[in-house]
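Structure first, sequence second, as always.
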């Protein structure tokens, strides 16, 4: 009001943003949300004062390196022994153990052969050491000619420290799970 126009120029206050990628948000007043790490995603979190939080995205891809002889009529854990990547260090000895509670996409593929006539072959996701959900079930139809490429995908909820594994069962003698990056593999991705 001391100015004839009622306006005056002022020096802008210092920005609360200090790093490329910072976000301007609000708590009890204006607040800075620091940038997350590469690959993190921004999620709503009512437990945070700003209501927002950066969260790392866990991703795993592993495969069976070499052929594995499958026992007859026995649920057998597939030990995916070679990792392509494991961004959260959540995978070891064929087992994915969740670092945090969330929803996870689990994908598994097991290639086996050569089957005889009408021999079933099943793949199941085990959760915390018990069968949870079928990924795939198959019955072959022609003796000594079929190699089974079987797999599936599902979404499961895991609490921190819960784990998942892939088990398979087959009903023929002398069957191998085929090793190799394109044959027998498992991938897991945290989606929420």
């Amino acid at each position: 009001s001391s100015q004839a126009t009622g306006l005056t120029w002022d020096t802008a206050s210092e920005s609360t943003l200090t790093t490329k990628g910072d976000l301007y948000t609000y708590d009890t007043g204006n607040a800075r949300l620091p940038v997350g790490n590469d690959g993190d995603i921004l999620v709503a979190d009512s437990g945070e004062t700003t209501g927002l939080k950066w969260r790392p995205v866990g991703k795993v891809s592993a495969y069976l390196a070499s052929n594995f002889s499958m026992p007859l009529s026995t649920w057998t854990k597939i030990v995916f022994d070679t990792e392509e990547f494991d961004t959260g260090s959540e995978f070891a000895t064929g087992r994915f153990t969740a670092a945090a509670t969330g929803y996870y996409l689990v994908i598994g593929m097991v290639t086996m052969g050569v089957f005889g006539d009408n021999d079933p072959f099943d793949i199941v996701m085990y959760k915390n050491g018990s069968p949870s959900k079928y990924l795939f079930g198959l019955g072959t139809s022609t003796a000594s000619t079929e190699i089974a490429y079987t797999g599936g995908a599902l979404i499961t909820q895991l609490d921190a420290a819960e784990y998942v594994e892939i088990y398979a069962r087959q009903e023929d003698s002398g069957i191998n799970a085929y090793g190799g990056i394109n044959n027998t593999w498992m991938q897991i991705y945290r989606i929420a």
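Margin note: The mean pLDDT is 85.
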